[in-house]
UniProtKB/TrEMBL annotation:
InterPro entries: Dabb, Dimeric_a/b-barrel. The lineage of its organism: Bacteria, Pseudomonadati, Planctomycetota, Planctomycetia, Pirellulales. This is Stress responsive A/B Barrel Domain protein. It comes from Botrimarina colliarenosi. The keyword Aminoacyl-tRNA synthetase does not apply. Keywords: Signal. The keyword Signal applies. Residues 24-120 form the Stress-response A/B barrel domain. Residues 1-21 form the signal peptide. It comes from the Bacteria.
Length: 144
């Protein structure tokens, strides 16, 4: 009987999905005190110097506002955007208190007058719910 229970427990243990922390996105939008090309370039360079290559970073990029995007829904209150995706919330937390992140704030902080931060937990496409069947209009448009 003990062997049977041990076997069932082992099967359940192996077949149970482990709770894995979702990747966490950290999106930061900077409004410059003086929005000129020199300050934009300086802030972008500081992001690369201090914020790239942290442990747990699976995606890093920094850039400037796409000024050609002027739809009503576009927020144009920033000049520089930083996008970092961490493999876990723990990696994000470590980054926040890392000496290089703190040095970035100290050195580059005078360049900005405002910062908006958007942190989110990411859901992989394979983990998302399967989409329902395409609406009849979509099928007709696709020639189905």
């Amino acid at each position: 009987m003990f062997k049977a229970l041990a076997l069932v427990a082992a099967i359940l243990f192996v077949s149970t999905p482990y709770a894995v922390a979702a990747p966490q996105a950290h999106m930061v939008f900077f409004t410059l005190t003086e929005p000129n090309d020199a300050n934009r370039d300086q802030l972008v360079a500081a992001c690369h110097k201090y914020l790239a290559d942290h442990t747990g970073v699976i995606y890093f990029t920094v850039g400037t506002i796409a000024e050609d995007r002027d739809r009503e829904v576009n927020d144009t209150s920033f000049q520089v955007a930083l996008h970092v995706v961490f493999d876990s919330p723990a990696a994000h937390d470590t980054y926040q208190t890392h000496p290089r992140h703190l040095a970035f704030i100290k050195e580059a902080g005078p360049l900005w007058s405002g910062v908006k931060v958007f942190d989110s937990n990411l859901v992989a496409a394979s983990a998302a719910a399967a989409p329902s069947a395409a609406a009849p209009q979509e099928k007709a448009a696709a020639g189905e």
